[in-house]
Design a protein that fits this description.
- This protein is an alpha/beta fold.
- It folds into four domains: 92 residues, PriA, 3(prime) DNA-binding domain (GIY-YIG endonuclease), CATH 3.40.1440; 148 residues, Rossmann fold (3-Layer(aba) Sandwich); 176 residues, 3-Layer(aba) Sandwich (Rossmann fold); 80 residues, Alpha-Beta Plaits, CATH 3.30.70.600.
- It contains 16 helices and 28 strands.
- Helix 12 packs parallel to helix 13, helix 13 runs antiparallel to helix 14 and helix 15 packs across helix 16.
- It starts with a strand and ends with a strand.
- Bound molecules: zinc ion (2 copies).
- One zinc ion binds next to loops.
Length: 597
């Protein structure tokens, strides 16, 4: 008997070993095997008949039985293929650490049930609704969050209905392993985890829940290199059962699915919504971050003893007209052009076309075009000047870490006014704020990414959900008619998605096409360039749209953006697997399918 073993290596291929007569092994089992002069942990992906005269034998088993069933292995294989990445690394990222001394339950093979349409839960009551559904569900439940902090909160939130085991790295290796086993053995039925739990065995009939499906944090760098949304959609199709997607602002991809009848939208009950207004910052914002409208609303909140949260954005590298707010965009790709201070030029991050920086605004003829923005510290100072008696704190969990963040959090918890970035919203429960103010949301629309509007919309909606129905929302924007702002202020999601889907369809972006970023790196600039050329040629021959390669500053890393249809992964994998021509074009090729940044 021969065993095909995959290791946590970038290589996609399996290694073959002889199975010694004294070892009982099965596919999905973790084993130890000699590789490159050392004994390494690997995973058996298949057993085949054959003699083992010319291959090395397995060294030992790592666990007494299979940790993955045939169905789970098939799902992992699909994830690897869809993300053009290593099957071995994908499996390694999706398994709990091995604990050979613990008793172990067999990986259960689940019967496939009828697939149900994924359900989008939008309303403000969506979290309570998830808990009710978990409570009522007769089988197992897997709740997946974008990060460890949210996993801890969900485990605590669900504990009211019964114990929920944790599969994320916020608990010890032993606890993770025991959680996995208690699910495999059917002793526990509710689990909470992050993306590393995507393959976790869940008692039948299973219900999957993906929290905040729209969040890009569901696809951080590293294996498994696929958005968790795509994995749970696939898993629900293979295994049957329900899939709940609670999110106030679903991804454009999911909204489109619902539009085309492939997902069910639970329309939210009409809920009270705070009054919002747009304050025009033209001519003012360069000197002073607060318009009279936002200053007045802040004053009101303080006078009523309510808390205010002012959101700032991190600085972007795009230009905008100070007079009319127009942003130079790529005529082909529709995304904001990135501005380089070094060579005073604009370039498109997607198609790589370069343009000299204009002297005047093409929309209004204005002469003040510059990159600008207000960081949290400058807004904080301006608030101190204006409201000297208020307790004002800055909270920036997106850019601060460790002890400094802890101090910030403590101060922010007792502050009247919190100035912060996206992550600061976590401080506030729903409908708790007297005021949410957006200092420079226009920066969000100017990010050089086709998802800029979707991200801005999601952030603004999340902020407004945290404002009391009798509170205020002030958006300082030069684009009061932008469909994302209109949709948020009028509590009309459909308004946003209608426009956004039209934009995506016209310019060929997801969900209508798939994108992929291919990076090549080499030790020398000529090799990197030659490899990028060769890759581009082969990808074009595969029938894909390939934008010109762009080098990093030293020319050692080149990036190509590739656009195609649903079969993009298969075409890209085939194209980059071909042997390098010319032979000097040697280096490392990395593929990032469906990039989120
Ligand atoms: Zn202008
Ligand atoms: Zn372009």
């Amino acid at each position: 008997m021969l065993a095909e073993v995959m290791f946590d290596l970038p290589l996609g291929q399996a290694f073959t070993y002889a199975v010694p007569a004294h070892l009982a092994v099965a596919p999905g089992q973790r084993v130890l095997a000699p590789l490159g002069g050392a004994v390494r942990a690997g995973l058996i992906v298949a057993l085949v008949e054959g003699g083992g005269e010319r291959v090395k034998p397995l060294a030992d088993t790592l666990e007494p039985r299979s940790i993955l069933s045939g169905g789970q292995l098939a799902l992992a294989r699909w994830i690897a293929a869809e993300s053009c990445s290593s099957f071995g690394s994908t499996c390694a990222a999706l398994l709990p650490p091995a604990l050979p001394t613990e008793p172990m339950a067999a990986a259960p093979e689940r019967p496939a049930g009828p697939a149900e349409l994924p359900e989008l839960l939008l309303g403000a009551d969506r979290l309570a609704r998830v808990r009710r559904e978990v409570d009522r569900h007769p089988g197992g439940v897997l709740v997946l969050t974008a990060d460890v902090g949210a996993a801890a909160e969900w485990a605590a939130f669900l504990a009211a209905a019964g114990p929920a085991v944790r599969l994320d790295s916020g608990v010890s290796d032993r606890e993770r392993w025991r959680a996995w086993n208690s699910l495999a053995g059917g002793e526990r039925r509710v689990a909470v985890g992050t993306r590393s739990a995507l393959l976790a065995p869940i008692p039948h009939p299973a219900m999957l829940v993906l929290i905040d499906e729209h969040d890009a944090a569901h696809k951080p760098p590293g294996a498994p290199r696929l958005h968790s949304r795509d994995v749970v959609l696939r898993r629900a199709t293979l295994e049957g059962g329900r899939l709940l997607l609670p999110s106030a602002t679903p991804s454009v991809e999911m909204w489109w699915r619902a539009d085309s009848g492939r997902a069910r939208l639970h329309p939210p009950d009409p809920a009270p919504w705070p009054t919002g207004s747009v304050a025009d910052p033209r001519g003012l914002l360069r000197r002073e971050p607060l318009t009279p409208g936002l200053a007045r609303a802040t004053q009101d909140a303080l006078a009523q003893g309510r808390r205010a949260c002012l959101l700032v954005s991190r600085l972007t590298s795009t230009l905008a007209c100070d007079d009319c707010g127009a942003v130079p965009r790529c005529p082909e790709c529709g995304i904001a052009l990135a501005f380089s201070r070094v060579d005073k030029a604009l370039s498109c991050r997607q198609c790589a076309r370069r343009h000299p920086a204009p002297d005047t605004c093409s929309a209004c003829g204005g002469r003040r075009l510059s990159p600008f923005g207000w960081g949290a510290d400058r807004v904080e100072h301006a608030l101190h000047r204006r409201f000297p008696r208020a307790r004002i704190a800055r909270y920036d969990p997106d850019a601060t870490r460790g002890a400094r963040l802890e101090t910030q959090r403590r101060l922010a918890a007792g502050a009247d006014i919190v100035v912060g970035t996206r992550g600061a919203l976590r401080l506030f429960p729903p409908a708790s704020l007297g005021l949410a103010g957006f200092v420079t949301p226009d920066q969000l629309f100017r990010v050089a990414d086709f998802r800029a509007s979707e991200r801005a919309f999601a952030l603004m909606w999340a902020a407004v959900e945290r404002v009391r129905p009798d509170g205020q929302v002030v958006i300082q924007s030069q684009h009061p008619d932008h469909y994302a702002i209109r949709a948020v202020l009028s509590q009309d999601r459909g308004e946003f998605y209608k426009h956004e889907l039209r934009f995506r369809a016209e310019l060929g972006y997801p969900p209508f096409r798939r994108l992929c970023r291919v990076s090549v790196r080499a030790r020398q600039e000529p090799s990197a360039r030659a490899l990028a050329d060769a890759c581009g040629r082969r990808l074009r021959e595969a029938g894909l749209t390939v934008y010109p390669a762009t080098p990093d500053r030293r020319g050692l890393v080149w990036r190509l953006v590739v656009k195609g249809q649903a079969d993009l992964p298969a075409r890209v994998a085939q194209a980059v697997a071909a042997p390098p021509t010319p032979p000097r074009a040697r280096g490392i090729i990395e593929v990032e399918m469906d990039p989120v940044d």
